[in-house]
Each structure stands twice: as structure tokens, then as C-alpha cells.
Amino acid sequence: SIHTVTAFLYAGLPGRDYWLTALMGARFLASAFASGPALLILLCFVVKRVSNFDPGEEALGKLSVIITYALAISLFFVGLEFFTAFYSQVPGHMEGLTYLFWGLEGQGNLVPFMWLFVILAVAGFILLINPRTRRQESTLKIACVAVFIAMLLEKGLGLVVTGFIPNPLDTVVEYAPTAPEMAITVGIWAIGFLIITVLYKMAIGVKEEIDF
Q1: pTM of the prediction?
Q2: How many whole angstroms separate alpha carbon 41 and alpha carbon 28?
Q3: C-beta atoms surrounding 74 within 10 Å
Q4: Which structural domain, as residue segments, surrounds residue 119?
Q5: How many CB atoms lie within 10 A of CB 58?
Q6: What is the count of structural domains for the chain?
Q7: 109 and 6 within one domain
Q8: Residue 1 above 70 pLDDT?
Q9: How far is 60 from 68, CA to CA, in rounded Å?
């Protein structure tokens, strides 16, 4: 529900063509179900390495299947956005995607990041769609890292920034993060990892006491 409400806040702005799509809520959910379990699997591998807790192959297998389906749906939704924008030839919808993947009016700071998203997403999907590589721990780790970074680029950079390009004056003004913004972002991630570390430590401690 949180992802859906956030998506509606974006999709309800008629002045931002890139966000004005009925698929926004579904895209948020699909990417969340891809990146969330990917991060969870990576955390499980970390916990397994530093403690006696083993999440089990069955749990990891089910999570990896969820990632596979969610990633496929997420990529399909991106393809739908391309088809709708370029088949209809609506300038407002085309400009955002053009800026992301090829640059617009000589500006294209996000182009390398978006093609990196494509490479990582496709590579992760290939590793996950194959049952053999999906069940191998080494390739599953690579796939989860690729999927998480891909979704971070697609939503964190591509979605938010591109909604403001071009601006209401139909001018391309590129965005670059400032030092305070980067510091705030690092701080938020640090707090999140701190909370996760404390909670995992408590849960693992309780489980080890029960087992022994």
C-alpha cells in the first residue's frame, strides 16, 4: 500500500508527462517485489556467513522465484511505456524516455546509467530465469546484486529526475546531486543498515539460545 500511495502522488500530476501514466502504481509494486527480495537474499547470505543461522534453500528458492516474476513484469511495463510513447508520438511522453536513453537537446547525464540499468536487469533476468543458475549460490548472488542496482537506477535516478525534464518552460535543465543531498542519502542508508543490524543480531541471538 505504501508503494501504491507513493506512485499515486506522482501519477496524479498532470503537468508532468513522464509520471502521468496509469502504470505508475503497478511499476512501483513490480520493482519493489524485485528489489526487496533481492536485498533480502543478500542479507540472508551475509547472516549465514557471520552466524550459525541458515535461512534454508527452500526460502531462498521461493524468494528467487518471486524476484524472477517481478523483474519480468517490471521490464514488461517499461516496454509498455516505450510502446505507448513512441507509437502514439505524443511529444510529452517521448521526451522523458528520449532524454533517459539517448539524451535530449544535447543533454544526457543519465544515459550511461539507464543503459547500465538495461544491462544489469537483462543479465539478472537471464541468471534468474534459468533454474540451474538460480539455484547456484554464486550466480544467485550476482543476479540479486544486478537486480537491486538496476531497480535503484531505474527508480532512484530514472523515474524521479526525469519527471522534471523538460521543465514546464520546455527547457532541459539537468540535475546533479549536491553534497547535502548525498550526505542525507548516506545518512538514511546508514540508519537503515543500523536498524537491520540490531534487529538481526537480536533475532539470531534468540534463535541460537533456543537451538542450544
Answers
A1: 0.89
A2: 20
A3: 27
A4: 2-175
A5: 8
A6: 2
A7: yes
A8: no
A9: 12
